[in-house]
């Protein structure tokens, strides 16, 4: 079993076979993260834990942006 | 009736402000296309990453029919992560109105409690049903491309059955949101109850008959076998009875001012 792959083996992979299929999958995920990050950036003055939400949005897969939209957007409305 | 339309419009303005009309469909599209892609590439993912020595993958297992994959989209994506996301996104549906005094304010106006609740549920159900349908169509397109074709009539029938279950999810979360005051408790109770309902489907026929989650099972059956279970209509009616009961409890709770607004 091969565990280590070199960079020179990248050209052996047939990228064109699966990129058109996988691309929408990543595009949708990145779109969600981008919307959350743009909203966070526009309200950066009023958000309390800015850094924490940035990491949650970036690193918690799928659920991070959702948690930000549901819970994280609350604190600005109180002001 | 006029106030009902106004309340629905207010809800939609609120949703646009929360970006809910954007992110909820995106999340369901994401969930919908995950299942076909992962199922399609499972053999090559296992071959490349897993300790593959000595394991032969039965080709008949991986060559699934389109209907089975679409059914597993409903069963293992929408019924687990999708259900949690729906419950989390709807947990503040009435609780936020209670917390900031909006509910008490609205009730001082000449608005009936029923039209308030109906406006809440209808608007939230429309957005939830729209998201689920969009995600389901995305999944359908992928399944037709990567696997065998699913007949359009089966797809629509399964979607209609599934949307009945979604209506139950929305109204149950609304009721819990009316009764309890903390968002965490609302999310916890609705997620645990709804997933519990989904897990016990299939244990016994008596429980299945009163269990709304069996609508989801009927939707999967339509996709896999292609025929409608004769119990599906009965189950849909029982689910509607549950929903009316839930509306009644919610109405009673608000009308008798059981909620405490600080």
From TrEMBL, chain A:
This is Phosphatidylserine synthase. The keyword Glycoprotein does not apply. It is found in: Cell membrane. Pfam families: PLDc_N. The chain crosses the membrane at residues 15-38, 50-71. It comes from Domibacillus aminovorans. Keywords: Cell membrane, Membrane, Transmembrane, Transmembrane helix. GO terms for cellular component: plasma membrane. The keyword Hydrolase does not apply.
Automatic annotation (TrEMBL), chain B:
One of its GO terms (cellular component) is plasma membrane. GO terms for molecular function: ABC-type transporter activity. Pfam families: ABC2_membrane_2 (PF12679). The keyword Transmembrane helix applies. The chain crosses the membrane at residues 21-42, 125-147, 159-180, 186-211, 232-254. Keywords: Membrane, Transmembrane, Transmembrane helix. The keyword Protease does not apply. This is ABC transporter permease.
């Amino acid at each position: 079993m091969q565990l280590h792959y070199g960079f020179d083996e990248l050209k052996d992979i047939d990228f064109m076979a699966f990129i058109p299929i996988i691309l929408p999958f990543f595009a949708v995920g990145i779109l969600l993260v981008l919307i959350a990050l743009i909203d966070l950036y526009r309200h950066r003055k009023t958000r309390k834990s800015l850094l924490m939400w940035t990491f949650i949005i970036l690193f918690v897969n799928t659920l991070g942006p959702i948690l930000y939209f549901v819970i994280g957007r609350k604190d600005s409305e109180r002001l | 009736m006029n106030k009902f339309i106004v309340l629905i419009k207010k809800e939609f303005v609120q949703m646009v402000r929360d970006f809910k009309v954007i992110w909820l469909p995106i999340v369901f599209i994401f969930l919908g296309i995950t299942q076909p892609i992962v199922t399609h590439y499972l053999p090559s993912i296992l071959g490349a990453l897993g300790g593959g020595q000595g394991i032969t993958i039965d080709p008949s297992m991986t060559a699934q029919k389109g209907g089975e994959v679409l059914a597993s989209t409903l069963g293992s994506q929408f019924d687990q992560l999708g259900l949690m996301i729906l419950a989390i996104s709807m947990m503040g549906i009435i609780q936020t109105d209670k917390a900031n005094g909006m509910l008490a304010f609205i009730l001082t106006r000449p608005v009936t409690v029923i039209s308030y609740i109906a406006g809440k549920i209808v608007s939230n159900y429309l957005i939830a049903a729209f998201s689920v349908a969009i995600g389901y169509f995305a999944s359908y397109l992928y399944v037709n491309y990567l696997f065998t074709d699913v007949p359009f009539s089966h797809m629509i029938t399964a979607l209609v059955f599934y949307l009945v279950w979604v209506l139950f999810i929305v109204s149950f979360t609304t009721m819990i949101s009316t009764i309890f005051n903390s968002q965490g408790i609302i999310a916890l109770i609705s997620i645990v109850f709804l997933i519990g309902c989904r897990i016990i489907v299939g244990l016994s026929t008596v429980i299945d008959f009163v269990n709304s989650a069996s609508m989801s099972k009927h939707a999967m059956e339509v996709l896999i076998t292609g025929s409608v279970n004769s119990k599906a209509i009965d189950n849909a009616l029982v689910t509607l009875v549950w929903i009316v009961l839930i509306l009644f409890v919610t109405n009673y709770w608000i009308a008798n001012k059981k909620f405490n607004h600080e």
